[in-house]
Design brief:
This protein has 155 residues and is of the alpha+beta class. The chain has 2 domains: 11-43; 50-145. The chain has 5 helices and 6 strands, in the order E-E-E-E-E-H-H-E-H-H-H. Helix 1 (63-73) crosses helix 2, helix 1 crosses helix 4 (121-131) and helix 2 (81-98) packs antiparallel against helix 3. The chain is elongated and about 70 Å long. The N and C termini lie far apart (67 Å).
Length: 155
């Protein structure tokens, strides 16, 4: 590890701690050359597959993009930030466990829909309206029928 002050490579670890979440290691180091102290952080790196978009482009999986879409679907719903974070965490674990090098955006979207249906039905409908590109009220009705819940006003 190079010292950020002088660039020397002779540094020594003086303290190591694991974060509260357990996903990061914090190390306090001191430079043997200049005596300055600094902190480094180590995190594990997930090997996630590339995402094949609808137009066949390939992109890196973007957690923040997915989280933003799910968060938008959950606006003004009784869904906590922790719940959406856990949903995305489960999705990342699933992606890693597939062992595939590439996965389609359709597979990811279907998995998100499955999770959202259990979390909050209205959020699932909102997400589906963008994900499935709903054009009419009939699209909403068809989707809601998949919940086995009658539309409002019908019993």
């Amino acid at each position: 590890m190079r010292c950020p002050s002088c660039g020397d490579e002779t540094t020594r670890v003086i303290d190591t701690r694991v974060s509260r979440e357990g996903d990061e290691i914090r190390r306090r180091r001191t430079c043997e050359e200049c005596g300055r102290r600094f902190t480094t952080r180590e995190r594990y790196e997930l090997q996630l597959p590339k995402v094949i978009k609808g137009d066949q482009r390939r992109e890196e999986f973007d957690r923040s993009k997915l989280l933003a879409g799910i968060t938008l679907a959950c606006v003004k719903r009784p869904v906590s930030v922790d719940s959406t974070e856990r949903l995305v965490n489960r999705l990342e674990v699933w992606l890693q466990e597939t062992g595939q090098r590439e996965v389609t955006s359709r597979e990811i979207g279907d998995r998100v829909m499955q999770e959202l249906r259990e979390l909050d039905r209205i959020a699932a409908i909102r997400f589906a309206s963008v994900y499935e590109s709903f054009d009419s009220a009939a699209d909403y009705a068809t989707f809601m029928a998949s919940f086995d819940v009658p539309p409002k006003g019908e019993v």
